[in-house]
Amino acid sequence: MKTYISVILLILTLGWSVQVEAQNKKNRVQPGRMYAPGDTLFAPRLGFTARVPNGWEGTLPRESEVFMLSSTSTTYGEIFIFGNPDGNLNGILEKWKNGVALTESIKLKATNPTINDGMLTSEVIATGDYINKGYKGFAVARCNPDGPCVIALLVAPVQFYESVKTTVSDFMKSSTFEAPANISIYADFDWKDFLSNKVLITYQSMQGGVKENMIHLCADGTFQSDLKHTGMFKDQNPRYRGKNTGTWKLSGNGPVTTITFTFKDKKLSPIEAELTIEDEKILSNGERYYVGHSDKCK
Predict the structure, then answer these.
(1) How far apart are CA 217 and CA 179, in angstroms?
(2) How far apart are CA 138 and CA 171, in angstroms?
(3) Of 64, 60, 10, which is closest to residue 39 (Cα–Cα)?
(4) Contact status, residue 228 vs residue 241, Cβ threshold 8 Å
(5) Which of the four, 49, 176, 196, 228, has the lowest number of CB atoms within 10 Å?
């Protein structure tokens, strides 16, 4: 198994670039979240849509562009889905036939690549030193009529290979394509879902130590703040420092949103602050905020 995983990672360094992004019901979701059977996977830059098969779950690991499906049934297998933006089936077939040299002694090669009904399939074997013969590989490729291709690579123990091979074939066969679109990964980012029952934390180095701000955002629309420095409220009256409670709401999804705080203390006027997400970093008023699970929300 370790040999096959190494093979997959090495493939990615050889130019089989990966551009799969996951969405649920066409709404983009966050890396690291697990997707259940029936959830929709959508890769806009590839124009690719598919569904998680029954008996499987999927995830897009953080800081990774490989979407991975894992079997949750009595059979075992893993499917790795990635893209080839500039490929075509005939070109991919020739590469598979020739094999991909991973090291001086290890090569990944398709044994019987064939194209039927617009889908390229083949058993894939690793040849060379220290190969685990207890596992087999199977690859499937389809191409968007408007350009990019999608490849699914299955790795499974020999005893489960035939049944899991059917799963990956059906998964790719039932997938659909549309015109690719260069959409930001945060184009429809759901801030409410992301921030509910979370705490926003920021730190500021001060003479004599570090000051910490914490704002707990509960799913019921209430918040609790404990501000040692003004932070995202830095343009406001210093009275906003310290501990306060009230309600919060958001305006708009996407890479930028506005969060409004209404305070229980009627002497404090509501405050609006802009939140931005970029490269998985949350920013407000020039400061980075870290997001964790709140221990204040019930």
Answers:
(1) 38
(2) 13
(3) 60
(4) yes
(5) 176
Query: What separation, in Å, do the N-terminal and C-terminal C-alpha atoms of the chain show?
Result: 42
Q: What DSSP state is assigned to residue 134? A: T
Cα 243 to its chain centre, rounded Å, is 36
DSSP state of 142: E
Strand bridging mode 27-28 / 48-51: unpaired
For residue 109, what is the enclosing H or E element?
strand 106-110
**Identity at 205, one-letter amino acid code:** S
Query: pLDDT tens digits, residue range 96-139?
Result: 888 877 667 777 789 999 999 999 999 998 887 777 788 889 99
**Strands 27-28, 23-24: parallel, antiparallel or unpaired by DSSP?**
antiparallel
Q: Is the pLDDT of residue 245 over 70?
A: yes
Rounded-to-integer distance, Cα 91 and Cα 178, Å = 21
Instruction: Look up residue 239 and give its amino acid.
Output: R
Cα atoms in the Cβ-side hemisphere of radius 13 Å centred on 87: 26
What is the distance between the alpha carbons of residues 264 and 17, in angstroms, rounded to a whole number? Answer: 52
Higher pLDDT, 270 or 187: 270
3-state secondary structure at position 203: strand
Higher pLDDT, 161 or 131: 161
User: Could you tell me the pTM of the whole model?
Assistant: 0.59
Total length of the chain: 298
